[in-house]
Amino acid sequence: MLAKYKIYILLIIFNLTFIYSILKSNDIEKIQIVKDNYYIGSLKLVNYKEKTSLLKDKEASYYILNFWASWCAPCIKEMKSLNTLQKKKPDIRVITISQDKELSTSIEFFKKNNYKKLEKYYDKDKNILDAFSIRGLPTTFIANKELKVFSKVEGIIEWESEEFLDWLYSN
What's the predicted TM-score (pTM) here? Predict the structure, then answer.
């Protein structure tokens, strides 16, 4: 009887391990190459003090443009990883673009979570969102130093991982 329970337990462990390995996909596989590299230097960004600036005025080796909202659970989960990436790699500019209805909601989210390293912008009229092909949140675009988008991620990945950084610096 004890041997039968051991077999059941081993089968359960095996099945759970198998299911977990299927559900946990490789982050690099989530990165989609954008066929038409489009220029984003003329993108007008509105910060949380409602001051406008152009993306081309912000130099970096790479730009990570993250579309998010405070009501989006995956967005919230990924924000820590983006903040860590910005701390770890100052040559990469992480730009968050809130899709919340109210600016105050975004401001409160960042205050509460103490994500000080991220650049925070608000898409009040959804003009930026309209310029991109987005099916859902979070969606993140990756651009090179010439401000040409070459890839995007729909969903979340571990942005600060060595796997992602190796991929990024090789592109």
Answer: 0.84
